[in-house]
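Regression test attached.
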Amino acid sequence: MAIQRTLSIIKPDATERNLTGSINARFEQAGLRIIAQKRLHLTRAQAEKFYEVHKDKAFYDSLCEYMSSGPVVAQVLCGEDAVAQNRKIMGATNPANAEIGTIRRDFGQSIEHNAVHGSDSPENAQIEISFFFSQLEIVE
Ligand code: CMP
């Protein structure tokens, strides 16, 4: 398996509950390295752009409103098979269906307030990483 990068976002429900360090510990304990990180408050337009792929979904409007409702922490995670590894650590999108010990099961509150986002493929990881970070901000 190859060393990969993936984009992670700690969502407003988790930053509001001061869970950034607890969530970062999950990544590091699993062997993923945080090679870039920034806290920011997305505008509604930025959230709409980031989640453009979901624009035809019924939940798009609410998702964009929520993702621009408070601070997020965007980060680049690096490691062996990082995209799949991060998805395993996060757990299923809906915390109610996520395995015990995953971030979403332990910290998520609902399918929308589900604590974290992670890229779903290496191709999307590249696109999502460049949405938030320049090459200069990523330090291996
Ligand atoms: P995320 O990994 O950030 O990717 C898209 C997000 O849309 C997803 O996590 C959920 O938070 C949200 N989402 C997916 N399905 C639904 C749904 N049925 N209702 C509300 N939000 C959803």
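Expected vs. actual: identical. Residues 122-132 form the longest helix (11 residues).
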